[in-house]
Amino acid sequence: MIGLGVIVMSFAGFQLYGTNILEAQSQDQLEADFDQRIADLEAAGLVVTDTTPTDATSDEGTTDEGTTGDGSAALADEINAAIAYENRPKLGDPNGPQFEVSTIDPEALSDEQIAVLTPRRGDALGRIEIPRIKLDRNLVEGIGRSDLREGPGHYGDTPLPGQPGNSAIAGHRTTYGAPFGDLDKLQPGDLIKVTTVQGEHYYEVSPQIDENGEERGYFIVEPTATEVLDDFGDNRLTLTACHPKRSSRQRIIVTAQLVSAPQPVLPELSEEQLTEILGEPENQSPVEEFALEEDSAVGVDENSLEASLGWNLDERSPTLVWGLGAAAVALAAVVLAQFMKKWLAYLLAAPPFLYLLFFTFVHLDRLLPAL
After folding, report:
1. Is 65 exposed, middle or buried (0-12, 13-18, 19+ CB in 10 A)?
2. Which of 92-106, 266-280, 281-295 has the lowest mean pLDDT?
């Protein structure tokens, strides 16, 4: 019973911390995939301009808390400087920071170029950075359960970040790196930077009025509040996550207004055309078959929400196989301890047991309802 209790507590620890390892691996892959997308753009004859503010200064190589020495400190300093309300960028303001626009001309694109520019579900979409909460994550296209394990995901039925309209992004708040764990710390006027193949796009967090009549950077809705994803006639970014933490009872919403120049809407190709040019997508499962995580999406009806948070029965067999493997190693260690020193038997069994237990937890986490 003590051993079983330790395993149960270990699984709780895995959900809170072990999933961060998986998310970090996915983030590395997304970064590599996005770099490849940029290379594909160059090969297709498309060039994306350097869209940093024209008055920005560079301190490449410096370091600061929450940054690395590869120039990300300079980026953080640049955006933090713009966070000050009196210096915030305003579209059309000749005295404020000016942003260059991507050179991509939608009218001059061939079908092959459009295909390269079009993100499909599971593709690397770009990057989101929010200096206030030290967020720096690669984005994935899609909000399915598997997508959000890799990082913040873009709602596929909303405009791409930087384009006119309401672009929406969902993310975890407690597990898998918890990229949106501190959304409640955002303040009106904070800047959000999103980088896509069309360049860099800057948003300013919009003020919300709380129950005490004070301004804050977020508001709370029910999971079925589809209206937050509507087109409000402006250019905005909507971030969604669960609320409160470790619960799927409600959603926390942050909206931000686009303050850099909106990018042109890219032409669309049918799925048949994309498949003809790019081949079959790696992930062909419809979004509806993937349960939404505890802190992912809004905008689903109650029946869909109930189904999305349910069991993922496809994971039954992998969970059972890995779990039996871990149990077999544990049993072998007990038997071996009868013929040699116990500490040595357990020491020899520990590496394979922990390895098998880790992947048992991986599949068990995918199997259980997202509650």
Report:
1. exposed
2. 281-295
Sign, CA torsion 229/234/235/236:
negative
Q: Is the pLDDT of residue 105 over 50?
A: yes
Distance CA 328, CA 332 (A): 6
Whether 117 contacts 172, CB under 8 Å? no
Inter-helix orientation angle 2-13/342-367, to 10°? 50
pLDDT band at 167 (very low <50, low <70, confident <90, very high): very high
Prediction pTM value = 0.76
Cα separation, 254 vs 240, whole angstroms = 7
Report yes or no: 165 and 235 within 8 Å, Cβ to Cβ.
Answer: yes
| DSSP H stretches of helix in 241-315 | 271-278, 302-308
Rounded alpha-carbon distances, angstroms, from residue 364 to 171, 174, 180 = 21, 17, 23
Residue type at position 18: G
pLDDT score recorded for residue 185: 94
